[in-house]
Specification:
The chain is mainly β. 0% of the residues lie in helices and 51% in strands. The strands form two sheets. Strands 2, 4, 5, 6, 9, 10 and 11 form a seven-stranded mixed β-sheet that branches. Strands 1-3-8-7 form a four-stranded antiparallel β-sheet, with no helix packed on it. The chain is globular, with a radius of gyration of 13 Å.
Length: 113
């Protein structure tokens, strides 16, 4: 099970740090990703981080502004989001993919002045 937190209302250009807490699963063996879904749009991948070497990948739209990280010992995954844009308003989801696929309930991020 995964539980996201850290969403909220932020002004354009602002920052938020999302957290994803895992319970009942061992993160070490899972590929972890952050996805987002805006109203009326399909869910899209934002970033992912590997289970073994911790290598990270980002959607082109967030490169240089978002940073994904993981702490397997604490069973936590983070997404640092800087220079946020209004079009990034969405529900952000954490995903853990291994032998099974786990999703959190999502956390709302609203970027608005």
């Amino acid at each position: 099970q995964l539980a996201e937190s850290g969403g909220g209302l932020v002004q354009p250009g602002g920052s938020l740090r999302l957290s994803c807490a895992a319970s009942g699963i061992t993160l070490d063996y899972h590929l972890i990703g952050w996805f987002r879904q805006a109203p009326g749009k399909e869910r899209e991948a934002v970033s992912c981080i590997g289970s073994s070497d911790g290598s990270a990948n980002y959607a082109d739209s967030v490169k240089g502004r978002f940073t994904i990280s993981r702490d397997n010992a604490k069973k936590m995954v983070y997404l640092q989001m800087n220079s946020l844009k209004p079009e990034e308003t969405a529900v952000y989801y954490c995903n853990a993919r291994g032998t099974s696929d786990y999703w959190g309930q999502g956390t709302q991020v609203t970027v608005s002045s």
